[in-house]
Amino acid sequence: MDTPFSREIAGPEPAGRPMPVDDDALLYEAEAAYLLGESVRTLQGRRISGDGPRFVKFGRAVRYMRRELRHYAEERLRRSTSDRGQAA
């Protein structure tokens, strides 16, 4: 399946640099939000509420590992709108 996680993305560069493709790469908020298909504000809100992907913090700087974003997205795969996923 061809997804933003599985290929290098040509076109917009959300953080003004080529998007890293390494799973251990640390991505800026804009890049993480772009890969997840949400706004930076939504990603920030999820981080504050504890409902977002795991992140790395260096002082005030927040970064996301590409593999953590993939894991976060895969945990939310559903077969239907009534599928609540696995019990936590």
Q: Would you kindly provide a written description of the structure presented here, covering whatever features stand out?
A:
- This protein is α+β, with helices and mostly antiparallel strands and 88 residues long.
- The protein contains three helices and three strands, in the order βααββα.
- The chain has helices at 29-36, 40-49, 66-75, and strands at 26-27, 56-58, 61-65.
- A hairpin with a 2-residue loop joins strand 2 and strand 3.
- Helix 1 crosses helix 2.
- The model has no long low-confidence stretch (mean pLDDT 86).
List keywords for this structure.
88 residues; alpha+beta; 3-stranded antiparallel beta sheet
Short description:
This protein has helices at residues 29-36, 40-49, 66-75, and strands at 26-27, 56-58, 61-65. The chain has 88 residues and is an alpha+beta fold.
